[in-house]
């Protein structure tokens, strides 16, 4: 949640500037400016981990305070991944995005299995291993993309100017929508008798998340191309929608036997929750395709407004809805906010194309 608060839209601004950069030298300098901003936000994150540790030590849960101190050296991994996911789409560096998402998890699975088998699995060890491996891999990928730190003053000026009209608007929207999505786990823990539903809801979100990634990745792949086109081609839209709905049907067919194979009877509800959440995630991913097109054209205000609308629904649902209906309130809220996000992005896209 903190990583989405710290960035103030500069990464999405940099992504757009990279998409319209006229030379590799200009693109390298933009990457250098973004990496400098990334370094400052990582330092800020470390300070916040100290503050969170102190707050837990003196106000909230004293037993958990030391975990915040433990992750200080590796807490920047989330910010680095955010940087890669955002900036690389402007560069059309699809292989970099794939490596940033795949390599940390793959390496972690291999190392963690041996470490946990030898020394046991503990919360602090999981945090250090998962975030530490991700941090090292992402630093290597970022450096491999050769950022240039020449003309930083000029680069920062260009970033600030573009950020006012585009990145900052997207940032406001992300605060209203993306950050609000984290509330569900908190409110479920507060209003429920125990944390079982928090675990079921989180697991259902984890298994359905990839359904949103497929159309989102297609939008990311064409981001640089979108910046130079007047609309999304009918072929791209048709193939994206077809693949997404085929994936949704396949997921619904397979999720019950897969959950039954991997977990015992106590987890049977997760399959039902995942089936319903899959609908929301699919439409959210499809909304991201229109989002990428609008972003490539610097349409910050429509992106902000769509996020505000979806975020308002999420905020109401994750508080009042969860209070009265528990996990079902959270599930209905997630689906509703995703559907609203999709339709708002589609309407804003249609309006922009018609106008231009």
Task: Write a concise synopsis of the structure shown.
By secondary structure, the protein is mainly alpha-helical.
Q: How would you characterize the overall build of this protein?
A:
With 356 residues, this protein is mainly alpha-helical. The protein is built from 15 helices and no strands. The longest helix has 35 residues, at 24-58. It has helices at 2-6, 10-19, 24-58, 65-70, 77-91, 94-119, 123-144, 152-176, 183-191, 196-221, 223-226, 234-262, 268-296, 300-325, 327-355. The model has no long low-confidence stretch (mean pLDDT 85). The radius of gyration is 21 Å and the shape is globular. α10 packs parallel to α13, α12 (234-262) runs antiparallel to α13 (268-296) and α13 packs parallel to α15 (327-355).
N- to C-terminal distance: 36 Å
Approximate helicity band: over 70%
The gyration radius over C-alpha positions equals: 21 Å
- DSSP E strands, number: 0
The H-and-E topology, N to C, reads as HHHHHHHHHHHHHHH
The largest sheet is: none
How many H/I helical runs? 15
Oligomer: single chain
Note the overall shape: globular
Structural class: mainly alpha
Rounded average pLDDT: 85
Low-confidence stretches: none
The fraction of residues in strands falls at under 5%
């Amino acid at each position: 949640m903190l990583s989405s608060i710290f960035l103030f839209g500069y990464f999405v601004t940099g992504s757009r500037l990279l998409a319209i950069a006229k030379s590799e030298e200009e693109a390298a300098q933009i990457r250098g400016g973004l990496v400098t901003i990334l370094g400052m936000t990582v330092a800020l994150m470390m300070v916040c981990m100290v503050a969170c540790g102190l707050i837990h030590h003196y106000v909230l849960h004293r037993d958990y305070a030391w975990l915040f101190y433990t992750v200080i050296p590796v807490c920047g991994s989330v910010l680095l991944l955010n940087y890669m996911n955002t900036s690389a789409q402007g560069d059309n560096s699809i292989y970099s995005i794939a490596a940033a998402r795949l390599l940390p998890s793959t390496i972690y699975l291999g190392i963690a299995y041996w470490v946990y088998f030898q020394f046991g699995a503990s919360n602090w060890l999981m945090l250090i291993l998962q975030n530490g491996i991700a941090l090292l891999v992402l630093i290597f990928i970022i450096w491999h993309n050769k950022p240039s730190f020449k003309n930083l003053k000029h680069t920062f000026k260009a970033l600030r100017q573009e950020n006012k009209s585009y990145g900052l608007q997207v940032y406001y929207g992300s605060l209203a929508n993306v950050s609000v999505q984290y509330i569900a786990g908190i409110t479920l823990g507060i209003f429920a008798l125990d944390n079982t539903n928090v675990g079921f809801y989180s697991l259902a979100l984890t298994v359905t998340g990839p359904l949103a990634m497929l159309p989102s990745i297609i939008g990311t792949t064409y981001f640089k191309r979108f910046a130079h086109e007047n609309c999304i081609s009918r072929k791209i839209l048709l193939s994206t929608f077809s693949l997404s709905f085929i994936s949704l049907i396949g997921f619904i067919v397979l999720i019950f036997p897969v959950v039954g194979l991997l977990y015992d009877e106590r987890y049977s509800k997760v399959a039902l929750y995942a089936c319903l959440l899959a609908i929301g995630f699919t439409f959210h991913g499809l909304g991201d395709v229109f989002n990428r097109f609008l972003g490539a054209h610097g349409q910050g205000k429509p992106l902000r407004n769509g996020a505000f609308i979806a975020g308002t629904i999420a905020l109401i649902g994750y508080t009042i809805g969860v209070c009265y209906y528990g996990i079902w309130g959270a599930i209905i809220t997630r689906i509703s906010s995703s559907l609203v996000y999709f339709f708002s992005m589609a309407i804003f896209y249609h309006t922009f194309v018609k106008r231009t």
